[in-house]
UniProtKB/TrEMBL annotation:
It is found in: Cytoplasm. One of its GO terms (cellular component) is cytosol. Belongs to the DapA family. This is 4-hydroxy-tetrahydrodipicolinate synthase. The record marks 49, 80, 84, 106 as: L-lysine inhibitor binding. It is an enzyme of class 4 (lyase). Pathway: Amino-acid biosynthesis; L-lysine biosynthesis via DAP pathway; (S)-tetrahydrodipicolinate from L-aspartate: step 3/4. Its main location: cytoplasm. One of its GO terms (biological process) is diaminopimelate biosynthetic process. The active site is at residues 134, 162. Keywords: Amino-acid biosynthesis, Cytoplasm, Diaminopimelate biosynthesis, Lyase, Lysine biosynthesis, Schiff base. GO terms for molecular function: 4-hydroxy-tetrahydrodipicolinate synthase activity.
Length: 292
């Protein structure tokens, strides 16, 4: 089972929006050196919505090569087209991804039965790779209910879910309902510690991009049931967990990494660089966490 701090890695870009491959390698090395337990390649934070299919797969391939098996790589391969998601998942499996992260279809708002059939179809079409569901209703305008997740837990290669609802009672209920069948991961940095203390197996983290060591230590403490240490570390990270969402992710985290001299300024439209009025708040949060 994949556990711990799973960074939702940004895709570094040149100012013209082209992918900065050398900085992508450097970011992977940064996480290997600082205890990150796994990398999510080309998720929301990696700007999956604006990468071409060719770029999407190339980023996954490069991250797999750079990690060289040292930590798991989870490839973001979801979509609102079942056929497209199957194609991406199949190609990521061929590239050697350890698992694939499949977002709830966005914009077309399927029913719960449609969600069940969508994920079942992908799992059956690509049975040789572990698959992690991803529920983020704030982004997709579609909420996969716990009852649907419980149904999907019966499919052997569906092994986990990234729960980005931020709803701890709901997440705790889900953990109990799928115990022994499905790993539940947090997808919300602000509530991740509590979900892991309740039995969650890790955190797919935006904050880990800039504070990988602190986040890996927090995940280890929380998964291990060490509440006092988890709360201490969470208090240090709390300003970052808030300030990295002052504008739509990954706008603030890309600015933060730029401020840390780890990436250039590139971000693809329709996303734009962080508004000037927020620079001071994000910088102060970086200083509070001791990463700047």
């Amino acid at each position: 089972m994949i556990t711990g701090s799973l960074v939702a890695l940004v895709t570094p870009m040149h100012p013209d929006g082209s992918i900065h491959w050398e900085q992508l390698d450097a970011l992977v090395d940064f996480h290997l050196e600082n205890g990150t337990h796994g990398i999510v390649a080309v998720g929301t934070t990696g700007e999956s919505a604006t990468l071409t299919p060719e770029e999407h797969l190339k980023v996954i391939e490069q991250i797999i090569k750079r990690t060289a098996g040292k930590i798991p790589v989870i490839a973001g391969t979801g979509g609102n087209s079942t056929h497209e998601a199957i194609d991406l998942t199949s190609e990521a499996a061929k590239l050697g991804a350890d698992a694939c992260l499949l977002v709830v279809p966005y914009y077309n708002k399927p029913t719960q039965e449609g969600l069940y059939r969508h994920f079942k179809a992908i799992a059956e079409a690509v049975p040789d790779v572990s698959q992690i569901l991803y529920n983020v209703p704030g982004r997709t305008a579609c909420d996969m209910l716990n009852e649907t997740v419980v149904r999907l837990a019966d499919i052997p290669n569906i092994v986990g879910i990234k729960d980005a609802t931020g709803n701890i009672p709901r997440g705790t209920e889900l953990i109990r309902a799928v115990e022994g069948r499905l790993a539940v991961y947090s997808g919300d940095d602000a509530t991740a510690a509590e979900l892991m203390l309740a039995g969650g197996k890790g955190n797919v983290s935006v904050t880990a991009n800039v504070a990988p060591k602190l986040m890996s230590e927090l995940c280890e403490a929380a998964i291990g049931g060490h509440r006092e240490e988890a709360e201490r570390l969470n208090a240090i990270l709390e300003p970052l967990n808030r300030k990295l969402f002052l504008e739509a992710n990954p706008i603030p985290v890309k600015w933060a990494l730029q401020r840390m001299d780890r990436i250039e300024t590139g971000i693809r439209l329709p996303l734009t660089p962080l508004s000037d009025k927020f620079h001071g708040e994000v910088e102060e949060a970086l200083k509070t966490a001791g990463v700047l």
